[in-house]
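User:
Hi there, any thoughts?
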Amino acid sequence: MHDIFRTVYEPAGLTATTTERPGGVRVVTLVGDIDAATVGTLDEALATGERVVADLTRVAFLSCAGVRSLLQANDRLDLAVVVGGHAVTRSLEATGADLVLKTHPRVGSALVGLTTEPGREA
């Protein structure tokens, strides 16, 4: 008899790596799941800076706590969110946050959006 179900145990968590880019833009790359247990890491990563790109392309799960954190950060800084996975896109769409946040498919387009001065073309 073959076991058709297999459970994969992976350590839960979230890591954040910050990179400073020209023009004073911080890129925060997040890897893992964003939920009630890990949202503190997201909050801390988005706590400083005036212009921030949050790269969520390597986030497998985004809970309502994570969406709330992104919206709160958006209220106090110039935030661009890079989405890649279906789970993140679905969470943003289900909550309506995709209508409020500046979302981009790639980090490059998010950087262009943040470094372009209002009224000037890139």
Notes: The longest helix spans residues 64-76. The first strand starts at residue 14 and ends at 21.
